[in-house]
Amino acid sequence: MAQNNADRVTVPEDERLDDLRVSARPSLISRIPLLKEVRIAVGWQKGMLVTGLLISAFFLLLAIFAPAIAPYGYAQLKDSHGVAFPTQAPPSARHIWGTTVGGFDVFSRTVWGARTAIIAIVIAVVLSIFVGVLLGLVSGYFGGWIDRVLVVIADAIYSFPSLLLAILMAIMISGGQSSLWGGILASGISITVVYIPQYFRTIRAEVLRIKGSAYVESAKVVGASTWRIMTKHLLKNSTRTLPVILTLNSSEAILTLAGLGFLGFGIEPTAAAEWGYDLNRSVSDVTAGIWWTSIFPGMAIVLIVLGITLVGESLNDLADPRLRTRKSAGEVIGSIEDTSVDPSEKPSSDNEVLAQIQAEHRATALGQGTKDDHTIVKEDTHE
């Protein structure tokens, strides 16, 4: 090790070569999802990504610690002393965000609604990814009539409006009056059916591009099974573009669940807290000047959708090199600046003049040499 350090050629006071650490193994923290994207993001991209992650993390923590944060239960109408809550009461020390027309505490309902939204996102995303990725792998790898049938079905599903399909599912599952899992399942199934074609087309296109690669052909030659090729080689290399669709899927799940609740096909208030239902009950309050029953559930929907959308747009920009504003620090290893002897030294005017004189001298010498060649050719011709 000492011999290797002694043989290294370094520039005094230039520590950039040590800072690069190209061969260093990435740390455990750097392998956490989205942290790598935060490091390479710059400018507006980094601001959007960090803001979206903070908003999404806030609602995730709100959902996890809802029992500890909310002062009352989502369906609680009386305090610990048995005193009923007032209806449509303005914000006060007892109810910091007021109460609804049904006597529910607005702050508690909004906090508990975050848990319902997160559960809906998880169910919709898990179902969509599982079905869409599986069909995309099968269609892209085997091709033939299976591929043609699945492509036609995927194109046909695009004509179904997600909210209309969600209403149909809610009626079929629970008769339009949903329990917690009934309402979430209705929205999850509707989002799954609508978003399966997007996962299917993305994975299918990647599989069609990858299955002709050399390492896939080598796996076939050595006798690898179809299942191993699809899972170990194709699946791992065809899912890199899914985060953007995943974020769009998550936002659509929240909006669809809220739409079901607003139209009266969502979750009952005694089963779970749901922001769409609270907005539906506050429509008449707005015209009466009672603003607190609608502003807080509405802001919750806007903020969580905004946070997830910002993350998705940032990941889309980072996945497409054409949309990047500039390279991050560490990606310019091969640039001229990194190969300079002294990064703090700038070319002086004397060096520029000297370079110009040398260029003119070379041009003159080249012209003189060309002239001499023409003279020799002319003398040879005269003889």
Task: Write up what this structure looks like.
The chain has two domains: 35-323, MetI-like fold (Orthogonal Bundle); 349-382. Helix 6 runs parallel beside helix 9 (180-210), helix 9 (180-210) runs antiparallel to helix 12 and helix 10 packs antiparallel against helix 11 (226-238). Helices cover 66% and strands 0% of the residues. The protein has 383 residues and is an all-alpha fold. It is globular, with a radius of gyration of 32 Å. Residues 325-345 and 376-383 have low confidence and may be disordered.
| Percent in strands | under 5%
Structure classification:
mainly alpha
The DSSP helix count reads: 16
The parts where pLDDT drops under 50 for at least 5 residues are 325-345, 376-383
What is the CATH architecture annotation of the largest domain?
Orthogonal Bundle
The main β sheet shows up as: none
Large-scale geometry? globular
CATH topology of the largest domain: MetI-like fold
Helical fraction equals 55-70%
Radius of gyration: 32 Å
**Total domain modules:** 2
CATH class of the largest domain: Mainly Alpha
User: What is the N-to-C order of secondary-structure elements (H for helix, E for strand)?
Assistant: HHHHHHHHHHHHHHHH
Q: First CA to last CA: what distance?
A: 71 Å
Averaged pLDDT: 75
CATH superfamily of the largest domain: MetI-like
Number of strands: 0
